[in-house]
Task: structure prediction
Amino acid sequence: MARMTLDELRAFRDAKRQDLARRDVEGKDIQIVVGMGTCGIAAGAKLTFDALVESIQKRGLENKVLVRQTGCMGLCYVEPTVEVIAPGMPTVIYGKMTKDAADELVQKHLVEGKLLDNHIFDRPAADIVKK
Result:
């Protein structure tokens, strides 16, 4: 392994600090949970996870949104699955979430406060969803 210069070490340290800050839960009231069991990973959950993180950063929401992973959510037939927990909105599990749909999820659900009806596979009963 080649030796790193001091500037390279500083850049590496700063990149790792940013990675750690993304994992910090303090002050983040919105959670996105990506199902990363073997079925989810095989269906492209890692690509979806990365696309969600990128979309959140693009919109400057990284200080408000925590993106994390979990094991299988039990909805293997619609993997990749993504659960969104946001104040003022029902908790929803979206299925068949591709990396292309990740940007739509961030824009519509998190920014505009609207559900993505074409990807919902689990949500609360209609009587508790505010219109």
Remarks:
- The chain has one domain: 27-128.
- Residues 31 and 130 are 20 Å apart (CA to CA).
- The chain has a mean pLDDT of 86.
